[in-house]
Amino acid sequence: MTVAFWCVLIAILLPYVCTVITRFGGGKFGLRENHDPRAFLDGLEGFGKRAHSAQLNGFEVAPAFAAAVIIAHIAGTASLVTINVLAVLFITSRLLYIICYLADWAILRTLVWSVGMALIAAFFFASI
């Protein structure tokens, strides 16, 4: 199992870290809210809403990252070191993205998101 494959698992799990932050970070989530969590999420504002948005973005980007890692491995033209470094950089960008989202640093968040997307593209260019 390569470092890049472990990074795919991390990318899959990172949105759930945001789920925990969303539900318990604001101190408002209890058993009553668990009966209708979507209504709870619809009513969020501020920090909780940003955590939920970061969660959704994580679910959106994880498949593209997983595909890029798998394709890079299958193509076999990029070195394993390159693939692993790109994967670790992507996970780092996702962690920074979550921090930026939670801190409400919108411009920096967009820049970090752009870096993450460029890293996904880099898997393909490294495999040419």
From TrEMBL:
<keyword id="KW-1133">Transmembrane helix</keyword>
<feature type="transmembrane region" description="Helical">
    <location>
        <begin position="65"/>
        <end position="91"/>
    </location>
</feature>
<dbReference type="InterPro" id="IPR023352">
    <property type="entry name" value="MAPEG-like_dom_sf"/>
</dbReference>
<dbReference type="GO" id="GO:0016020">
    <property type="term" value="C:membrane"/>
</dbReference>
<protein>
    <submittedName>
        <fullName>Putative membrane protein</fullName>
    </submittedName>
</protein>
<keyword id="KW-0812">Transmembrane</keyword>
<dbReference type="InterPro" id="IPR001129">
    <property type="entry name" value="Membr-assoc_MAPEG"/>
</dbReference>
<feature type="transmembrane region" description="Helical">
    <location>
        <begin position="98"/>
        <end position="126"/>
    </location>
</feature>
<keyword id="KW-0472">Membrane</keyword>
<dbReference type="Pfam" id="PF01124">
    <property type="entry name" value="MAPEG"/>
</dbReference>
